[in-house]
Design goal:
The complex is a heterodimer of chains A (231) and B (393).
Chain A (H helix, E strand, L loop, with lengths): L1 H4 L5 H4 L13 H8 L6 E5 L5 H10 L2 E6 L2 H9 L4 E3 L2 H4 L8 E7 L8 H11 E9 L4 H10 L23 H11 L2 E8 L5 E2 L6 H6 L2 E7 L9
Parallel strand pairs in A: 1-2, 1-4, 2-3, 4-5
Antiparallel strand pairs in A: 5-8, 6-7, 6-8
Chain B lengths: L18 E5 L3 E2 L5 E2 L2 E8 L9 E5 L25 E2 L4 E2 L4 E5 L31 H14 L5 E7 L1 H12 L4 E7 L7 H16 L16 H15 L2 H7 L19 H16 L2 H13 L10 H4 L6 E7 L7 H13 L4 E6 L13 H18 L10
Parallel strand pairs in B: 5-8, 5-9, 6-7, 9-10, 10-11, 11-12
Antiparallel strand pairs in B: 1-4, 2-3, 4-8
The chains are: A alpha/beta (231), B alpha/beta (393).
């Protein structure tokens, strides 16, 4: 597990106190993502944790919901609950899927833990007609203040691990992420910025205020002009 | 059961439990031979529902047989998958109709090299045609058709059984709703072929093998077959499991004897494994079945493309591997998963952490049970199988 340990999804982030059997308790950001997904579509949740989102989508929206998860405990929990999940990770398993295999590919609180975020993002847009990406905002004011006055790496509700023991190896701000989307030609079809309690702000994700106030961002992306990016 | 019998007390073959199907229509084998008529020995558990939708085909491994949950008619040992099969079990006999057939080329009732070649009146021996995993599955398909089952709910098996499961998914995808290959691979690796060759050479080097005609000569290549089993048995375990079980412990002695007796417990254990195996297995069957595994390469059947082997509508897959299995290591399973991803198949893949090696699929492994139970529950729900089916209910 040595090489992949760095990619382990922060268990505190990924497996909030939610079980696939408890529909009402879906984590707030996952609930927002679920609302963006059409019933009966084909969805791949990358870094699906214990399968809370998958279970909700399959049960309540008739979605053909599949998952990829790195942790054995997460995969086993999903399969035990009858969810089709494979053990794997975003960096090495996405290339095995064909173009536009899914209507929606979800990457929730995981991009910052991948080895190659740019490649992963391009792959998301290749295998999914749309991608929904949520990520912690490193430009959040508490993080900035913490760095400015305390001079220490942030430990927040969303980023719970100390710097020497974090899976989050590629943190970015919302503005950074928007910049990457522009660079690879991804279209931002919709975006939400969330406060620390997961409540959405009505802020333009390209604006300075969102980059300062939002603790997380959720983006619905599609490939450039609906084209399939080259492999 | 008080059937812990010595070999000399074994029940006559005609008295073994289970069923037989006489197949008259010859089977076109991969080797180009039209083989038949032949017999398939099989066993069933549970009851087929009126919709014929609750059938589960269990595929046995290299030295297994169809006595999944019956005491073995020769050794008296409990069935090889009693960990899973039974009322309320993972393979619930109150819910599913379980079928397991001895493979073609086997020695427990299905026609194999120890049976009489009608052309000569002598045992087939090496005149028996070389068979493949696909040939085994073709024979199973005949049985399933005979039982009037259009679509099996599940085909499940470990090791060579898993190869048959993958073959089912590739050859008859419309005839299976879900498939569960455990500790298996889409092709036999060079290392595994090498181990098999050691076993075969051990058998053929035994003078009592008599060029394969030992039955006609009233002989048995027991020493060769025992060595083959000993070598193979090592590959079924992990270093950690061997160490945990035996370490360097000595067998009934306080010091090494400076000789070639079984000083170490692990030696004694392997010798026991070898000597008991020869009572229940036919040496030529061992040659033929290991060969079938060696020849298995699902991608090669499809121009070298594994995804092509799974093109079209696919059953739901649950692929399981074990961390300490070095005979069918996880990357072999992962290769199948990736091929299935390429055709966007519905696939679950679980690697189970255990130090029990390849044999873990036969042992008490709660994580395996929980995984299988959850997967099968989910699929049964989709298939509309009620939890408890009883006649007339």
């Amino acid at each position: 597990m040595n090489s992949s340990a760095a990619l382990k999804i922060d268990p505190a982030v990924r497996t909030a106190p939610v079980s696939p059997g408890a529909p009402g308790e879906l984590r707030r950001d996952l609930r927002l993502i679920a609302e963006m997904i059409e019933p009966h579509s084909r969805v791949l949740d990358i870094g699906c944790g214990d399968g809370a989102l998958l279970a909700h989508l399959a049960r309540d929206k008739g979605v053909d919901a599949r998952g990829i998860e790195l942790s054995q405990s997460g995969v086993n929990a999903c399969v035990r609950h009858g969810l089709p999940v494979i053990q794997g990770d975003a960096d090495s398993d996405l290339e095995t899927f064909p173009n536009h295999a899914f209507d929606v590919v979800v990457l929730s609180q995981t991009l910052q833990a991948t080895r190659q975020p740019r490649y992963v993002l391009e792959e998301l847009l290749r295998i999914g007609k749309r991608a929904i990406v949520s990520l912690p905002n490193f430009g959040f004011w508490r993080i900035r203040v913490g760095l400015l006055f305390r001079g220490r790496m942030p430990v927040t509700e969303v980023l719970q691990n100390p710097w020497y023991d974090t899976p989050n190896i590629h943190l970015c701000t919302i503005r950074d992420f928007v910049g990457l989307c522009d660079e690879i030609g991804a279209r931002i079809e919709r975006s939400l910025t969330l406060d620390r309690h997961g409540h959405p702000y009505t802020l333009d994700p390209r604006g300075s205020l969102a980059n300062l106030l939002a603790e997380q961002g959720v983006f619905v992306l599609s490939g450039p002009d609906g084209d399939v990016p080259p492999r | 059961m008080s059937t812990l019998t010595a070999p000399r007390l074994r029940r006559p073959e005609s008295d073994w439990p289970g069923h037989t199907l006489a197949v008259s229509e010859p089977l076109r084998l991969d080797g180009g031979v039209d083989f038949g008529p032949f017999t398939i020995a099989y066993q069933t558990y549970g009851t087929l529902n009126p919709e014929r939708s609750n059938a589960v085909l269990i595929c046995h491994a290299l030295t297994g047989d169809h006595y999944v949950a019956d005491p073995h008619p020769i050794t008296g040992h409990p069935g090889w998958w009693t960990t899973l099969v039974g009322p309320g079990g993972v393979l619930d006999t109150d819910r599913y109709f379980l079928i397991c057939a001895n493979v073609l080329g086997g020695c427990m009732g299905t026609t194999g090299p120890k049976d009489i070649n009608p052309a000569t009146g002598e045992p087939w021996a090496l005149d028996f045609p070389v068979i493949t995993i696909r040939d085994m599955v073709r024979a199973q398909k005949r049985l399933v058709e005979h039982l009037g089952i259009e679509q099996l709910f599940c085909v499940i098996g470990g090791s060579m059984g898993g190869m048959q499961v993958l073959q089912w998914a590739s050859s008859y995808p419309e005839s299976v709703y879900t498939v569960v290959p455990i500790a298996s691979a889409a092709r036999h690796s060079a290392q595994n072929i090498a181990f098999h060759e050691v076993g075969r050479q051990a058998i053929m080097a035994d003078p009592d093998w008599c060029g394969g005609r030992y039955l006609s000569h009233g002989q048995s290549p027991s020493r060769g077959l025992a060595v083959a089993r000993m070598a193979a048995h090592i590959t079924y375990l992990s270093e950690a499991a061997l160490h945990r079980k035996f370490g360097r412990n000595l067998q009934d002695r306080n010091a090494v004897t400076y000789g070639f007796d079984a000083d170490f417990q692990v030696e004694s254990y392997l010798r026991h494994q070898g000597s008991t195996f020869v009572d229940r297995f036919d040496a030529n069957s061992y040659l033929y079945i290991t060969r079938a595994m060696d020849y298995f390469d699902l991608a090669a059947e499809h121009g070298g493309s594994l995804p092509a082997a799974f093109a079209g509508k696919q059953p739901r897959f649950c692929i399981i591997s074990f961390t300490s299995d070095w005979l069918f290591p996880t990357p072999e399973s992962r290769a199948v998963v990736h091929a299935l991803n390429a055709v966007a198949a519905n696939v679950s893949f679980v690697e189970i952490g255990t130090d029990k090696g390849h044999d873990a699929f036969l042992l008490h492994e709660p994580e395996l049970f929980a995984t299988l139970r959850g997967f099968l529950e989910g699929c049964a729900e989709h298939r509309g199988l009620t939890r408890f089916w009883t006649a007339g209910a």
